[in-house]
Amino acid sequence: MRGLSQYLVCVYDDACCIRISHYRSSHAYQSSLPPLISSQAPTMAMAATATAAAGAVAAFTSGRRISTSHPSSLSSPFLPRAAGAIVARRRATAPTAAVLVRAQAAGAKKSVLIVNTNSGGHAVIGFYFAKALLAAGHSVTVLTVGEEGSDKMKKPPFSRFSELTSAGASTVWGDPADVGAAVGGASFDVVLDNNGKDLDAVKPVADWAKSAGVGQFLFISSAGIYTLTDQPPHVEGDAVKESAGHVGVEKYIAAEFGSWASFRPQYMIGSGNNKDCEEWFFDRIVRKRPVPIPGSGMQLTNISHARDLGSMLTLAVENPDAAAGKIFNCVSDRAVTLDGLAKMCAAAAGTTAEIVHYDPAAAGVDAKKAFPFRNMHFYAEPRAAKEVLGWTSSTNLPEDLKERFAEYASSGRGEKAMTFDLDDKILSAVGAAPVSVAA
Protein backbone atom coordinates (compact mmCIF):
# COMPACT_ATOMS: atom_id res chain seq x y z
CA MET A 1 0.00 0.00 0.00
CA ARG A 2 2.65 2.53 -1.03
CA GLY A 3 1.93 6.23 -1.37
CA LEU A 4 -0.53 6.37 1.47
CA SER A 5 1.57 8.93 3.29
CA GLN A 6 -0.34 11.54 1.28
CA TYR A 7 -3.81 10.56 2.43
CA LEU A 8 -6.09 10.88 5.41
CA VAL A 9 -8.03 7.83 6.53
CA CYS A 10 -11.34 8.54 8.24
CA VAL A 11 -12.90 5.72 10.28
CA TYR A 12 -15.98 5.75 12.47
CA ASP A 13 -15.07 4.81 16.02
CA ASP A 14 -17.23 3.40 18.80
CA ALA A 15 -18.05 6.91 20.05
CA CYS A 16 -19.81 7.68 16.75
CA CYS A 17 -17.16 10.18 15.74
CA ILE A 18 -14.85 9.95 12.76
CA ARG A 19 -11.26 9.40 13.77
CA ILE A 20 -8.94 10.97 11.22
CA SER A 21 -5.29 9.96 11.10
CA HIS A 22 -2.68 10.04 8.40
CA TYR A 23 -0.12 7.34 7.91
CA ARG A 24 3.50 7.76 6.98
CA SER A 25 4.15 4.27 5.65
CA SER A 26 2.33 1.18 4.52
CA HIS A 27 3.54 -0.64 7.64
CA ALA A 28 2.16 2.01 9.95
CA TYR A 29 -1.06 2.04 7.95
CA GLN A 30 -1.67 -1.70 8.13
CA SER A 31 -0.62 -2.09 11.74
CA SER A 32 -2.73 0.86 12.95
CA LEU A 33 -5.91 0.23 10.98
CA PRO A 34 -8.82 -1.08 13.07
CA PRO A 35 -9.90 -4.63 12.27
CA LEU A 36 -13.33 -3.52 11.05
CA ILE A 37 -11.90 -2.63 7.62
CA SER A 38 -10.42 -4.92 5.03
CA SER A 39 -7.00 -3.85 3.77
CA GLN A 40 -8.60 -3.38 0.33
CA ALA A 41 -11.29 -0.99 1.52
CA PRO A 42 -9.36 2.31 1.69
CA THR A 43 -7.99 1.93 -1.84
CA MET A 44 -11.41 1.14 -3.28
CA ALA A 45 -13.13 3.90 -1.31
CA MET A 46 -10.42 6.35 -2.39
CA ALA A 47 -10.80 5.51 -6.07
CA ALA A 48 -14.60 5.66 -5.97
CA THR A 49 -14.59 8.93 -4.07
CA ALA A 50 -12.06 10.54 -6.41
CA THR A 51 -14.05 9.48 -9.47
CA ALA A 52 -17.31 10.78 -8.03
CA ALA A 53 -15.71 14.04 -6.93
CA ALA A 54 -14.18 14.66 -10.35
CA GLY A 55 -17.53 14.13 -12.02
CA ALA A 56 -19.33 16.35 -9.56
CA VAL A 57 -16.86 19.21 -9.98
CA ALA A 58 -17.05 18.96 -13.78
CA ALA A 59 -20.84 19.05 -13.67
CA PHE A 60 -20.88 21.90 -11.15
CA THR A 61 -18.58 24.13 -13.17
CA SER A 62 -20.19 23.34 -16.54
CA GLY A 63 -23.71 24.10 -15.31
CA ARG A 64 -25.16 20.98 -16.89
CA ARG A 65 -28.00 19.10 -15.24
CA ILE A 66 -26.81 16.18 -13.17
CA SER A 67 -28.52 13.28 -11.51
CA THR A 68 -29.96 13.93 -8.07
CA SER A 69 -29.48 10.34 -6.95
CA HIS A 70 -27.04 9.88 -4.10
CA PRO A 71 -23.71 8.34 -5.15
CA SER A 72 -22.99 4.91 -3.79
CA SER A 73 -19.26 5.51 -3.41
CA LEU A 74 -19.54 5.77 0.36
CA SER A 75 -21.11 2.33 0.69
CA SER A 76 -19.04 -0.82 0.50
CA PRO A 77 -19.26 -4.48 1.50
CA PHE A 78 -15.89 -3.91 3.13
CA LEU A 79 -17.40 -1.38 5.55
CA PRO A 80 -19.89 -3.13 7.82
CA ARG A 81 -20.65 -0.07 9.91
CA ALA A 82 -23.09 2.64 8.86
CA ALA A 83 -20.81 5.16 7.21
CA GLY A 84 -17.66 3.18 6.54
CA ALA A 85 -14.33 4.66 5.59
CA ILE A 86 -13.59 7.72 3.53
CA VAL A 87 -10.21 8.44 2.04
CA ALA A 88 -9.38 11.96 0.91
CA ARG A 89 -6.28 13.67 -0.44
CA ARG A 90 -4.41 15.45 2.33
CA ARG A 91 -3.70 19.10 1.56
CA ALA A 92 -0.07 20.12 1.67
CA THR A 93 -0.85 22.58 4.43
CA ALA A 94 -3.02 20.24 6.50
CA PRO A 95 -2.08 20.02 10.18
CA THR A 96 -0.76 16.74 11.47
CA ALA A 97 -2.96 16.76 14.55
CA ALA A 98 -6.03 14.53 14.57
CA VAL A 99 -9.40 16.18 13.92
CA LEU A 100 -12.70 14.99 15.30
CA VAL A 101 -15.63 15.22 12.88
CA ARG A 102 -19.09 14.62 14.24
CA ALA A 103 -20.69 11.61 12.56
CA GLN A 104 -23.87 12.04 10.56
CA ALA A 105 -26.47 9.30 10.83
CA ALA A 106 -30.04 9.31 9.64
CA GLY A 107 -32.55 9.34 12.48
CA ALA A 108 -30.14 10.63 15.13
CA LYS A 109 -31.06 13.79 17.04
CA LYS A 110 -28.72 16.61 16.07
CA SER A 111 -27.37 19.80 17.56
CA VAL A 112 -27.90 22.52 14.94
CA LEU A 113 -26.54 26.06 14.73
CA ILE A 114 -28.48 28.50 12.56
CA VAL A 115 -26.53 31.62 11.60
CA ASN A 116 -29.44 33.93 10.81
CA THR A 117 -29.55 37.24 8.98
CA ASN A 118 -31.01 40.23 10.80
CA SER A 119 -32.76 41.72 7.77
CA GLY A 120 -34.51 40.96 4.49
CA GLY A 121 -36.87 38.20 3.49
CA HIS A 122 -34.54 35.35 4.44
CA ALA A 123 -34.74 35.98 8.20
CA VAL A 124 -38.00 34.05 8.37
CA ILE A 125 -36.30 30.95 6.93
CA GLY A 126 -34.18 30.50 10.04
CA PHE A 127 -37.22 31.03 12.24
CA TYR A 128 -39.28 28.31 10.56
CA PHE A 129 -36.28 25.98 10.28
CA ALA A 130 -35.74 26.28 14.03
CA LYS A 131 -39.41 25.56 14.70
CA ALA A 132 -39.32 22.45 12.48
CA LEU A 133 -36.13 21.17 14.10
CA LEU A 134 -37.47 21.67 17.62
CA ALA A 135 -40.71 19.90 16.73
CA ALA A 136 -38.62 16.94 15.54
CA GLY A 137 -36.65 16.79 18.79
CA HIS A 138 -33.38 18.36 17.66
CA SER A 139 -31.30 20.84 19.64
CA VAL A 140 -31.20 24.36 18.19
CA THR A 141 -29.11 27.47 18.66
CA VAL A 142 -29.92 30.58 16.62
CA LEU A 143 -27.10 33.08 16.18
CA THR A 144 -28.56 36.32 14.86
CA VAL A 145 -26.31 38.95 13.34
CA GLY A 146 -25.98 42.15 15.38
CA GLU A 147 -27.18 43.05 18.86
CA GLU A 148 -30.18 41.81 20.79
CA GLY A 149 -31.20 45.34 21.75
CA SER A 150 -31.26 46.75 18.21
CA ASP A 151 -34.44 48.17 16.69
CA LYS A 152 -34.44 45.36 14.11
CA MET A 153 -35.15 42.88 16.87
CA LYS A 154 -38.46 44.61 17.58
CA LYS A 155 -39.84 43.33 14.28
CA PRO A 156 -40.88 39.79 13.35
CA PRO A 157 -39.61 37.17 13.19
CA PHE A 158 -37.12 38.31 15.86
CA SER A 159 -39.87 39.65 18.11
CA ARG A 160 -41.26 36.11 18.18
CA PHE A 161 -38.08 34.36 19.28
CA SER A 162 -39.79 33.55 22.59
CA GLU A 163 -41.65 30.88 20.60
CA LEU A 164 -38.29 29.24 20.00
CA THR A 165 -36.82 29.62 23.47
CA SER A 166 -39.98 28.33 25.11
CA ALA A 167 -39.58 25.20 22.98
CA GLY A 168 -35.99 24.72 24.15
CA ALA A 169 -33.89 26.70 21.65
CA SER A 170 -31.00 28.96 22.57
CA THR A 171 -30.73 32.40 20.99
CA VAL A 172 -27.53 34.43 20.84
CA TRP A 173 -26.38 37.53 18.98
CA GLY A 174 -23.02 38.38 17.56
CA ASP A 175 -20.69 38.66 14.58
CA PRO A 176 -20.56 35.64 12.23
CA ALA A 177 -16.95 36.55 11.49
CA ASP A 178 -16.22 35.32 15.02
CA VAL A 179 -18.85 32.65 15.37
CA GLY A 180 -16.79 30.64 17.85
CA ALA A 181 -16.86 33.48 20.36
CA ALA A 182 -20.55 34.12 19.74
CA VAL A 183 -21.53 30.54 20.61
CA GLY A 184 -19.20 30.30 23.57
CA GLY A 185 -17.34 27.20 22.46
CA ALA A 186 -20.47 25.06 22.00
CA SER A 187 -20.20 22.16 19.54
CA PHE A 188 -22.65 21.31 16.77
CA ASP A 189 -23.44 18.52 14.35
CA VAL A 190 -24.88 20.84 11.70
CA VAL A 191 -24.42 24.49 10.76
CA LEU A 192 -26.73 26.46 8.46
CA ASP A 193 -25.52 29.80 7.10
CA ASN A 194 -28.67 31.82 6.43
CA ASN A 195 -26.84 35.13 6.41
CA GLY A 196 -24.02 35.49 3.89
CA LYS A 197 -24.52 36.24 0.21
CA ASP A 198 -20.89 35.96 -0.84
CA LEU A 199 -17.71 34.18 0.16
CA ASP A 200 -16.38 37.07 2.24
CA ALA A 201 -19.39 36.71 4.56
CA VAL A 202 -19.68 32.91 4.60
CA LYS A 203 -16.04 31.83 4.60
CA PRO A 204 -15.41 32.67 8.30
CA VAL A 205 -18.44 30.59 9.30
CA ALA A 206 -17.51 27.71 7.01
CA ASP A 207 -13.88 27.71 8.12
CA TRP A 208 -14.88 27.73 11.78
CA ALA A 209 -17.36 24.91 11.19
CA LYS A 210 -14.71 22.81 9.49
CA SER A 211 -12.13 23.41 12.21
CA ALA A 212 -14.74 22.62 14.87
CA GLY A 213 -15.51 19.24 13.32
CA VAL A 214 -19.06 20.09 12.22
CA GLY A 215 -20.40 17.12 10.30
CA GLN A 216 -22.77 18.89 7.88
CA PHE A 217 -22.75 22.41 6.42
CA LEU A 218 -25.87 23.89 4.83
CA PHE A 219 -26.18 27.17 2.94
CA ILE A 220 -29.13 29.35 1.93
CA SER A 221 -28.36 30.46 -1.60
CA SER A 222 -30.85 31.96 -4.07
CA ALA A 223 -32.79 30.88 -7.14
CA GLY A 224 -31.95 34.32 -8.49
CA ILE A 225 -28.52 33.01 -9.55
CA TYR A 226 -29.97 31.04 -12.48
CA THR A 227 -29.38 32.51 -15.92
CA LEU A 228 -32.35 33.21 -18.18
CA THR A 229 -33.78 30.09 -19.75
CA ASP A 230 -36.00 29.31 -22.73
CA GLN A 231 -37.25 26.23 -20.89
CA PRO A 232 -38.77 27.23 -17.56
CA PRO A 233 -38.95 26.20 -14.82
CA HIS A 234 -35.41 26.33 -13.47
CA VAL A 235 -34.28 22.93 -12.18
CA GLU A 236 -31.21 21.93 -10.23
CA GLY A 237 -28.23 21.76 -12.58
CA ASP A 238 -29.35 24.61 -14.83
CA ALA A 239 -26.71 27.21 -15.72
CA VAL A 240 -26.02 29.90 -13.12
CA LYS A 241 -24.43 33.34 -13.15
CA GLU A 242 -20.79 32.59 -12.43
CA SER A 243 -20.27 36.11 -11.10
CA ALA A 244 -22.94 35.72 -8.41
CA GLY A 245 -21.66 35.70 -4.84
CA HIS A 246 -23.84 32.72 -3.92
CA VAL A 247 -22.15 30.65 -6.65
CA GLY A 248 -18.74 31.34 -5.14
CA VAL A 249 -19.99 30.14 -1.78
CA GLU A 250 -21.47 26.95 -3.24
CA LYS A 251 -18.17 26.11 -4.93
CA TYR A 252 -16.22 26.78 -1.75
CA ILE A 253 -18.30 24.61 0.55
CA ALA A 254 -18.36 21.86 -2.10
CA ALA A 255 -14.56 21.80 -1.97
CA GLU A 256 -14.28 22.04 1.83
CA PHE A 257 -16.98 19.71 3.16
CA GLY A 258 -17.83 16.10 2.52
CA SER A 259 -21.40 16.65 3.72
CA TRP A 260 -22.86 19.89 2.41
CA ALA A 261 -25.97 21.11 0.64
CA SER A 262 -27.19 24.38 -0.81
CA PHE A 263 -30.78 25.61 -0.92
CA ARG A 264 -32.06 28.12 -3.47
CA PRO A 265 -35.29 29.86 -2.38
CA GLN A 266 -37.48 32.33 -4.26
CA TYR A 267 -40.29 34.44 -2.81
CA MET A 268 -41.74 33.49 0.57
CA ILE A 269 -44.81 34.16 2.65
CA GLY A 270 -45.69 33.11 6.17
CA SER A 271 -46.51 34.53 9.56
CA GLY A 272 -43.51 36.48 10.79
CA ASN A 273 -42.22 37.51 7.38
CA ASN A 274 -41.11 41.14 7.40
CA LYS A 275 -40.58 41.75 3.70
CA ASP A 276 -43.35 43.42 1.73
CA CYS A 277 -44.67 41.20 -1.05
CA GLU A 278 -48.30 40.28 -0.55
CA GLU A 279 -48.65 43.42 1.60
CA TRP A 280 -47.99 45.49 -1.53
CA PHE A 281 -51.20 44.09 -3.00
CA PHE A 282 -53.16 44.46 0.25
CA ASP A 283 -52.16 48.14 0.50
CA ARG A 284 -53.94 48.86 -2.77
CA ILE A 285 -56.83 46.43 -2.47
CA VAL A 286 -58.09 47.65 0.93
CA ARG A 287 -57.98 51.25 -0.32
CA LYS A 288 -59.92 50.26 -3.44
CA ARG A 289 -57.10 51.42 -5.68
CA PRO A 290 -56.22 49.81 -9.01
CA VAL A 291 -53.39 47.28 -8.84
CA PRO A 292 -50.82 48.17 -11.54
CA ILE A 293 -49.02 45.09 -12.87
CA PRO A 294 -46.29 45.40 -15.51
CA GLY A 295 -46.63 43.45 -18.75
CA SER A 296 -49.40 40.98 -19.44
CA GLY A 297 -49.76 39.73 -15.86
CA MET A 298 -49.25 36.18 -17.07
CA GLN A 299 -45.64 36.02 -15.90
CA LEU A 300 -45.05 32.94 -13.73
CA THR A 301 -43.39 33.06 -10.36
CA ASN A 302 -43.14 30.86 -7.27
CA ILE A 303 -44.21 31.78 -3.74
CA SER A 304 -43.62 29.32 -0.90
CA HIS A 305 -44.77 29.30 2.69
CA ALA A 306 -41.73 29.47 4.93
CA ARG A 307 -42.80 26.28 6.70
CA ASP A 308 -42.02 24.42 3.46
CA LEU A 309 -38.47 25.72 3.53
CA GLY A 310 -38.15 24.68 7.15
CA SER A 311 -39.40 21.16 6.44
CA MET A 312 -37.04 20.72 3.48
CA LEU A 313 -34.03 21.82 5.50
CA THR A 314 -35.02 19.53 8.37
CA LEU A 315 -35.19 16.55 6.02
CA ALA A 316 -31.65 17.35 4.90
CA VAL A 317 -30.49 17.33 8.52
CA GLU A 318 -32.22 14.02 9.16
CA ASN A 319 -30.96 12.44 5.93
CA PRO A 320 -27.41 13.77 5.61
CA ASP A 321 -26.16 11.05 3.28
CA ALA A 322 -28.99 11.65 0.83
CA ALA A 323 -28.52 15.43 0.95
CA ALA A 324 -24.72 15.40 0.72
CA GLY A 325 -23.36 17.36 -2.24
CA LYS A 326 -26.79 18.39 -3.50
CA ILE A 327 -28.38 21.60 -4.73
CA PHE A 328 -32.05 22.02 -3.80
CA ASN A 329 -34.52 24.51 -5.21
CA CYS A 330 -36.18 25.51 -1.95
CA VAL A 331 -39.57 26.37 -3.41
CA SER A 332 -43.15 25.13 -3.53
CA ASP A 333 -44.27 22.87 -6.36
CA ARG A 334 -46.80 25.21 -8.03
CA ALA A 335 -46.33 28.44 -9.96
CA VAL A 336 -48.67 31.43 -9.86
CA THR A 337 -49.19 34.23 -12.38
CA LEU A 338 -48.83 37.84 -11.26
CA ASP A 339 -52.50 38.45 -12.10
CA GLY A 340 -53.40 35.31 -10.19
CA LEU A 341 -51.54 36.54 -7.12
CA ALA A 342 -53.44 39.85 -7.20
CA LYS A 343 -56.74 38.00 -7.45
CA MET A 344 -55.82 35.65 -4.58
CA CYS A 345 -54.82 38.58 -2.38
CA ALA A 346 -58.15 40.25 -3.08
CA ALA A 347 -60.02 37.04 -2.31
CA ALA A 348 -58.14 36.75 1.00
CA ALA A 349 -59.35 40.27 1.80
CA GLY A 350 -62.92 39.34 0.85
CA THR A 351 -63.12 41.52 -2.24
CA THR A 352 -61.99 41.76 -5.85
CA ALA A 353 -59.04 43.51 -7.48
CA GLU A 354 -59.05 46.03 -10.32
CA ILE A 355 -55.91 45.09 -12.29
CA VAL A 356 -54.28 47.56 -14.67
CA HIS A 357 -51.52 46.38 -17.01
CA TYR A 358 -48.83 48.75 -18.26
CA ASP A 359 -45.57 48.95 -20.17
CA PRO A 360 -42.92 50.28 -17.75
CA ALA A 361 -40.95 51.95 -20.53
CA ALA A 362 -44.01 53.71 -21.92
CA ALA A 363 -45.05 54.82 -18.42
CA GLY A 364 -41.56 56.11 -17.70
CA VAL A 365 -41.01 54.02 -14.55
CA ASP A 366 -38.54 51.42 -13.37
CA ALA A 367 -40.52 48.22 -12.82
CA LYS A 368 -38.07 47.15 -10.11
CA LYS A 369 -39.11 50.17 -8.04
CA ALA A 370 -42.77 50.13 -8.97
CA PHE A 371 -43.51 46.42 -8.43
CA PRO A 372 -42.25 43.92 -5.81
CA PHE A 373 -41.82 40.95 -8.19
CA ARG A 374 -39.69 40.40 -11.27
CA ASN A 375 -41.30 41.47 -14.52
CA MET A 376 -40.55 38.13 -16.18
CA HIS A 377 -41.04 34.41 -15.75
CA PHE A 378 -39.14 33.55 -12.57
CA TYR A 379 -40.09 30.04 -11.61
CA ALA A 380 -38.05 27.17 -10.17
CA GLU A 381 -39.18 23.64 -9.40
CA PRO A 382 -38.21 21.49 -6.36
CA ARG A 383 -37.32 18.30 -8.23
CA ALA A 384 -34.28 17.34 -6.16
CA ALA A 385 -36.06 17.67 -2.81
CA LYS A 386 -38.87 15.43 -3.98
CA GLU A 387 -36.62 12.81 -5.53
CA VAL A 388 -33.79 12.77 -2.99
CA LEU A 389 -35.45 13.69 0.31
CA GLY A 390 -39.01 12.56 -0.31
CA TRP A 391 -40.16 16.09 0.48
CA THR A 392 -43.69 17.33 -0.24
CA SER A 393 -44.96 20.89 -0.35
CA SER A 394 -47.68 22.11 1.98
CA THR A 395 -48.05 25.60 0.48
CA ASN A 396 -51.68 26.44 -0.26
CA LEU A 397 -51.51 29.99 -1.54
CA PRO A 398 -55.21 30.94 -1.28
CA GLU A 399 -55.35 29.74 2.35
CA ASP A 400 -51.88 31.00 3.28
CA LEU A 401 -52.78 34.47 2.00
CA LYS A 402 -55.77 34.52 4.35
CA GLU A 403 -53.33 34.07 7.25
CA ARG A 404 -51.24 36.95 5.95
CA PHE A 405 -54.24 39.22 5.45
CA ALA A 406 -55.45 38.54 8.98
CA GLU A 407 -52.09 39.72 10.30
CA TYR A 408 -52.14 42.70 7.93
CA ALA A 409 -55.58 43.74 9.15
CA SER A 410 -54.68 43.34 12.82
CA SER A 411 -51.55 45.46 12.37
CA GLY A 412 -53.60 48.52 11.43
CA ARG A 413 -51.53 49.08 8.31
CA GLY A 414 -54.63 49.26 6.16
CA GLU A 415 -55.78 52.43 7.97
CA LYS A 416 -52.46 54.25 7.82
CA ALA A 417 -51.94 57.18 5.46
CA MET A 418 -49.92 56.18 2.40
CA THR A 419 -48.83 57.83 -0.83
CA PHE A 420 -48.77 56.05 -4.18
CA ASP A 421 -46.78 58.41 -6.36
CA LEU A 422 -45.41 55.78 -8.73
CA ASP A 423 -48.81 54.14 -9.04
CA ASP A 424 -50.37 57.48 -9.90
CA LYS A 425 -47.73 58.14 -12.54
CA ILE A 426 -48.41 54.73 -14.10
CA LEU A 427 -52.17 55.11 -13.97
CA SER A 428 -51.99 58.57 -15.51
CA ALA A 429 -49.84 57.21 -18.34
CA VAL A 430 -52.41 54.54 -19.23
CA GLY A 431 -55.44 56.78 -18.67
CA ALA A 432 -56.70 54.88 -15.63
CA ALA A 433 -55.75 57.28 -12.84
CA PRO A 434 -58.13 57.82 -9.93
CA VAL A 435 -60.07 61.09 -10.13
CA SER A 436 -58.04 62.54 -7.27
CA VAL A 437 -54.81 62.43 -9.29
CA ALA A 438 -56.10 62.90 -12.84
CA ALA A 439 -54.66 66.02 -14.52
UniProtKB/TrEMBL annotation:
One family name in Pfam for this protein: Epimerase
GO molecular function: UDP-glucose 4-epimerase activity
Gene Ontology CC terms, in alphabetical order: cytosol
Biological process annotations from GO: monosaccharide metabolic process
Residue ranges annotated for the NAD-dependent epimerase/dehydratase domain, each copy included: 120-330
Organism superkingdom: Eukaryota
Protein name: NAD-dependent epimerase/dehydratase domain-containing protein
